Amino acid sequence: MTISQSLIQEFIKLTSQSQVLTEEADRLSYSYDAAVLTPKIPALVVAPATEEQLGQVVKLAYENGLQLTVRGSGTNLSGAVIPEPGDSLVILTNRLNKILEINEEDLYAVVEPGVITSQFAEAVVGRGLFYPPDPGSQTVSTLGGNVALNAGGLRGLKYGVTKDYLMGLEFFDYNGNLVKTGSRTVKCVTGYNIGGMMISSEGTLGVFSKIILKLVPPPKASQAMMAVYDDINKASETVAAIIANHILPCTLEFLDQKCLKYVEAHTKAGLPVEAAAILLIEVDGSHQAGVDEDAAKVKELCTRVGAKEIRVAKDAEEKFKIWEARRNALPALARAKPTTVLEDATVPRSKVPNMVAEVNRIAEKYKIDIGTFGHAGDGNLHPTILCDRRDTEEFKRVEEAVDEIFDVAIKLQGTLSGEHGIGQAKAKWMVKETNQATVDFSKNLRRALDPKYLFNASKKIV
Amino acid sequence: MPEKNLPNATSFQELSDLLMSLDNLLVSCMRCGLCQAVCPVYGATFREADVTRGKISLLENLAHETIKDVKSVNERLNRCLLCGSCQANCPSGVNIMEIFIKARSFVAGYLGLNIFKKLIFRQLLTRPKLFNLVTNISGFFQKPFLRLANANLGTYKVPLMKPFLGDRHAPSFPAHSFVDQKKPENKPASSSALKVALFPGCAPDKLFPRLALATLKVLNHHGVEVYMPKELVCCGIPVLASGDSQGFLRLTGQNLQTLVKSDFDYLVTPCATCAANIKENWPRFMDRYLNWEKSLVVDLTAKTMDITQFLASVLKAPFKPATPKDGAQVVTYHDSCHLKKSLGVSAQPRAIINSIPEYRLVEMPEADRCCGNGGSFNLFHYDLSRDIGQRKRNNIVSVKPDVVATGCPACLMQLMDALSQNNDQIKVKHVIELYADSLPNIAA
User: Fold this and answer.
1) ipTM higher than 0.90?
2) pTM exceeds 0.90 for this model
């Protein structure tokens, strides 16, 4: 550790002894996140407990040239909160965990960045409202992290992702000054849309202190079903047909054959393991009659396109069962081999069959195991590579395969990441998806807002 | 004959080699961090080194020699209740308890055990008569030292013992332990009746004999024959939690010698922790047992049950939901971790409560969140234990119950302390007491 004792004392003065972690064993536990990447131990970890402390810590760190990484629960999959090498500071937001306001009249909430996503969603439900973004890590992820990574989830197609709920933000700039953007109103054109720039900025532009989120009325009725296909193209055609008929299911999920086999081995739930793919479809709305009508139409479309079998949930219990396959997708895959590399390549909806075929080709080419599930309605697939990171030869093949998956996604006019973030993992690919001018523009923007390049330096744009 | 004791590391190199034997388990943690949602310690401190993901990372680094500060890793490793909440919720199915139990043994073997622990674990707990005498003497002499804290809960403060007990509000020792009150039994099983070995557990025997008596009353009521030997000793969990696998194996060996003496269909206990320990930890050391011990341990893994599980699942006692009487007492139920997360028992105790018309069951929020006792965790990390207990207490009082029921004496102690500290007028009972009280009394 190279940070001087006197500087550490200053951080303690701003906060308290117990909020500043210096011991190796403590710092080591902030060296990783959920991405399969090399950990880096930070020099210091500080956990501010108030907005004021947060601002002062940012200011002190920046003045002293410390590399600065803000961490919520450390659950992202792109290495976005793996600390920087050298004199690096990790700022923890999990003590800033107050829901400051839930406004039922004007349909918004104000939260601190360390509030846990699902706890917030539950509190909102308790007030008769709905906050839809539901990333896979929602039981532990923080709303600050969700905004920083623009987290998605299963409800993207109909309800959108975190960015669609961000109404306003307060954040500290590198001087430790508080910047405010957006408002509590539906409409707001005051100043630049800085919130739009901060969302998915991955901690590279400023440090969030307060977030204003939009809430919506909850759906009152829903209907879930599973459609089974012996041809993956038919599954994809179904997705296109549903949307062409102007029905927006709240969730439209996809599992491929390999994935089904793993899930069935794990759950013994009686899944159709011989199927090429299944779709899990749920429609919702404010009236049962309308939902029933949509569900009947979706069922008809599934049949017309050529689903081999359709299971419609008759009650809550059956609905729970239908979703079991999806709930267990990641657990089943994760148990199969020690290391799970969860990818996030996203393509236009119509290209899903091409993408799945390419993923399977790549798996064969590199002799690795890949199961694919994901959000078919969003074209957002999660090819999940099962391997053992201790096997260096195999892991090299995995890395090559991941590179090729990105290549294919870009060729299919898709994107590197739908919802997991760029972080450290994919920063080098930015030029390929965009161009040099885009990277230069982003760097210029970044230099203006972070002249010393200390905010999460190796992430997003390199 | 297998080597009784686990290897003891005498150098850092040997320790990291021992830890490398856990590498296949450690590597299956994918660092998703979902354990943060359920870890009671993390919920109180928000420190990554306190949550399972952080601990696994520390152990991996110790095994790979990228951190060498064993003491500081050990300190963090012990900030864990061994409640198993993380394992029950782990998407990758990491065998976390195996990792933690073995790692604690390896690390304690390397760092050494302090003299008090050695004396208690290897000299006191292994001698049932002496242990009984010590608690009887404590029971006899305790009166002048006790200051009543909460009459409703039966909790006391012990100001003179503050250096040892802190500000705890604890139950007093009863005048007579369970084994002193009841003669050992071993009637031959009749052809029609089931026979069970009753494993009272240290706490129901010495501190809460009413739990063991209630269990016995219920077994008698249902016509179950009981094998109740005096020679049973501690199940070994506090010893194992401190990493003393040698002391643990000594106790297990003694218990096996007692249990092998009689046939029985099931082993039942009112202590969720004993049941979980016998089922999960006794078989963890299979390679250290003699052949007859091995087969008995395998047998016990299948036969051991919590008393409520035995009643509902084996006796199929007809716990029909009853309509609560007018003026029925409100009961809320706390899921002991070792009952719900280790043994999968959560419906049975609720069915029992629901079958008694004198009670109305009202669920508290986070009913299955750990209360923070963790047995010896409470002894060595009282402040932390108390913080975790306060969250449980707040959840309990939010439903305004007359009684909080649970299935483990360790939880009982913790709930009594937490409620007493807040001067709450709520009774704390084991589910089996509620059931036993609802049964007619039979002449002894």
Assistant:
1) yes
2) yes
